[in-house]
Structure formats: structure tokens, C-alpha cells
Specification:
CATH topology: Rossmann fold
CATH superfamily: Vaccinia Virus protein VP39
Helix content: 40-55%
Structural class: alpha/beta
Distance between the termini: 11 Å
Bound molecules: S-adenosylmethionine
Radius of gyration: 16 Å
CATH class: Alpha Beta
Largest sheet: 7 strands, mixed
Strand content: 15-25%
Number of domains: 1
CATH architecture: 3-Layer(aba) Sandwich
Oligomer: single chain
Strand order of the largest sheet: 3-2-1-4-5-7-6
């Protein structure tokens, strides 16, 4: 086990979160903010798959103010983050943390654009935190045009996908997003592992390579 490498990566994440906290101030640590979840993620080791097997290229859907992507930049060789809206604060966050391994794309809302971009990219890990609604449960695998189901279809090929917003404060299965995540193993195989407020999906192949351990 790469104890020193793992320790350095966890410390880099802690440093990034500290800088973001200082930059955006305590006001950002409201219930609607991602940063406390990221601290909790470290404490609960939901971050472990990223620490012990750092992605070469990680894709994020849902950039918002750039907090989560600034954290992924501490772990992955490179990060591409995608959103349909550009926020004012993102550049300041990435500059303060020193994210030089990050590409930010602002795209239109069409499924065709998202599919074309992600089909053309190689990556080995993805984070989904974009549109949390708009799942048509009558559609089959490969047919989705909106929401987290479309996003998952576009990134599932990478074999390990992390979702935000599974578990708390709602009981499991209370939201559209949670209900969709629950359907993934029956359509894609593999396993969903819940670490509130996150959920990982690992493909069979990733599990057989020791994705969870
Ligand atoms: C909860 S925020 C993401 C927070 C961010 N991951 C963080 O922790 O700092 C959700 C983001 O998803 C974006 N979004 C909404 N619909 C989307 C879509 N169809 N594709 C990509 N991003 C989308 C929103 O514009 C918003 O910036």
C-alpha cells in the first residue's frame, strides 16, 4: 500500500477545502453547500477509492462554484468539469487552490452535445452532480435524454462513478436521483455503495480489479 502517497493526497484535499473555506467564508457552509459533505466524505472514507487509486482523468458533470472540481484536482492527474451555466466564483476558487490540471466546459443543454463530448473522451472516473431531476423511468438503457440517467449513460463506460446527494437528509429512495441510482445495478451490473451523502457505482470489471478495497 502506498501509505505516503495516500497521506499526501488526503492532506492535499484538506488544504484545498481550507483555502476554499477561507475564500468563500463561513456563509458558504450552509446546508446547501457541498464543502461540509466533502469534509464528511474524508471522515467516512467515501473518498478512499479516489485516494488509493487516483484517476488519470476524471470527468465531473455539474461544476457550479468549482468546489468539488477543486478537490478532484488534488486527486486526479487531470479533471474536466462540465456545466450548462458559468458561475462567477469558479475562476477565483480554482486560482486560489491552484488547479492547473483542470478544463472547464460550458455546454448547451442538449443531450446530443453532452453525448458527443463524453463519447469522444477517455476517462477512468466520473462524478455526477448536475441535474438531479428529470428521469423518465419508462425509458430503457441508452434512451435517456435528460437528468442523471443521461449523465450516467454518458459516463458509465469509465467503470466507477460517484454521485452526490444520496442518503441524507432524505430516507434512501426518497428522491428521483436516489430512485434512479437504485436501478443502476439491474441495468448495468456492478454495485452501488452508499456513503451518505454520496453513492459510488463500480462496474463488475472495476470490482474484480479491487475497486472497493
Ligand atoms: C449542485 S450544483 C454542483 C455543485 C458542484 N459539484 C460543487 O460541489 O461545487 C449543480 C450544477 O449542475 C448544473 N446543471 C444543471 N443541469 C445540468 C445539465 N443538464 N448538465 C450539466 N450540468 C447541469 C447547474 O448549473 C449547477 O451548476
Amino acid at each position: 500500500m502506498d501509505v505516503i502517497g495516500n497521506t499526501i493526497r488526503i492532506m492535499k484535499v484538506g488544504r484545498a477545502l481550507g483555502i476554499i473555506e477561507e475564500l468563500l467564508g463561513p456563509g458558504m457552509f450552509s446546508s446547501s453547500c457541498m464543502a461540509p459533505d466533502l469534509y464528511e466524505m474524508m471522515a467516512k472514507s467515501a473518498i478512499w477509492p479516489l485516494v488509493k487509486d487516483p484517476p488519470k482523468r476524471m470527468v465531473e458533470i455539474g461544476t457550479y462554484r468549482g468546489i468539488s472540481s477543486a478537490v478532484w484536482c488534488q486527486l486526479a492527474d487531470s479533471v474536466t468539469t462540465i456545466d450548462v451555466v458559468k458561475q462567477r466564483e469558479t475562476t477565483a476558487v480554482w486560482e486560489a487552490v491552484g488547479c492547473r490540471n483542470l478544463t472547464s466546459l460550458v455546454i448547451d443543454t442538449s443531450a446530443a452535445t453532452k453525448r458527443a463530448i463524453l463519447n469522444g473522451m477517455n476517462f477512468d472516473c466520473a462524478f455526477i452532480d448536475g441535474d438531479h431531476e428529470n428521469v423518465d423511468f419508462t425509458k430503457k438503457k441508452g434512451e435517456h435524454e435528460t437528468g442523471p440517467a443521461l449523465d450516467f449513460e454518458c459516463v458509465a463506460k469509465c467503470g466507477r462513478v460517484l454521485f452526490h446527494d444520496y442518503g441524507q437528509p432524505n430516507p434512501p429512495g426518497a428522491t428521483v436521483l436516489e430512485r434512479y441510482i437504485d436501478t443502476i445495478p439491474e441495468n448495468y451490473g456492478g454495485k452501488v455503495v452508499v456513503c451518505p451523502n454520496f453513492a459510488w457505482w463500480f462496474s463488475e470489471e472495476n470490482l474484480s480489479k479491487g475497486g472497493l478495497i
